[in-house]
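FIELD: query
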Amino acid sequence: MQLSFWEKETYFGNIDVLIVGSGIVGLNAALHLKVSQPKLKILVSERGLLPTGASSKNAGFACFGSPSELLDDLSHHTEEQVFGLVARRWEGLQRLRKNLGDIKIDYHRWGGYEMFESSQEELYTACLEKLPYLNKHLQAIVGEPHVYRQADQKINNFRFKQVAHLLESTAEGQIDTGKMILALTQKVQALGVLVLNGLEIQSLHDNGTSITATTAQSIDITARTVLVATNGFAKKLLPELAVVPARAQVLITKPIPDLPLKGTFHYDRGYYYFRNIGNRVLFGGGRNLDFKTEETAELGLTDLVQDKLEELLTNIILPDVPFEIEHRWSGIMGVGKEKTIIVQQVSERVCCAVRMGGMGVAIGSLVGEEGAELVLQNL
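FIELD: result
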């Protein structure tokens, strides 16, 4: 791509910070940097027309962990690690709401639910027995008692079939992730941050005093420092990072008259999740059906997962309710063997803030700020 003198100077001259990735982490990093040091020239590059990973493709759950997820985490991590991460997720959600406002992100605290089949009686009993313990820790984080509670009486209200038990999370909510990314983009642009979509960073080179980024558009970008915020795609630029891409497939129904669902729902250890969007049902998950195939950075759909989603809609979620699928899509998350976020200095002038583990909506605002603080140390 051939640039004019004006374009080269205006967009690519004297860049202080290059942020790779225009998702929730990258944009929040830009926001924090610009508020901290308004005179910084910040360029956010995004390879896609819109954020490519999961920021505006996820289900929009404003959640921080279901009871079974937290119990499973406690079997692999320390109590301090597990509830420390829950606290960061909760703090991140509050930061997101404060930065953008509930109206702009269409936030609703309608509660969340974890579903259990009769075959999961042992898991349900274990969760139920641990509710006082979990609630004690959650009260210290959320500031409210009894965040988790039994909700079997609501099963018939939702008209589920084959669901034996429900546990409710009273502090869980939902947002519109498209509106969130739009509001966040507009906010940073209003502060003077340059956001260029369709600009793919392919490699980073340390020049000793600066970093040069090569692009698929044959434009070399030089910046004083770089923050990589591409989550599931991070290994393409930083191969040494322990980040594995994980594809999540999603579908949404056409409007359903008198839809009884309201809130967010977790099913089968969180591998499936659904919610209402008005009177539609958004349903996603199923990567546990074929972990290897879904361990990919390629967007796409598979019959295996999509057929299973439709089967569960028909037999459990919307039994005896006619529905049609209106749209299907996928997004790419970043995961690892451990449920820890990677916010670190990679080299003297390169930092990263990646591996949200499927909780980007919850923790992304906070992780972006943490990445920005690392960047500020390099300036």
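FIELD: remark
The chain has a mean pLDDT of 96.
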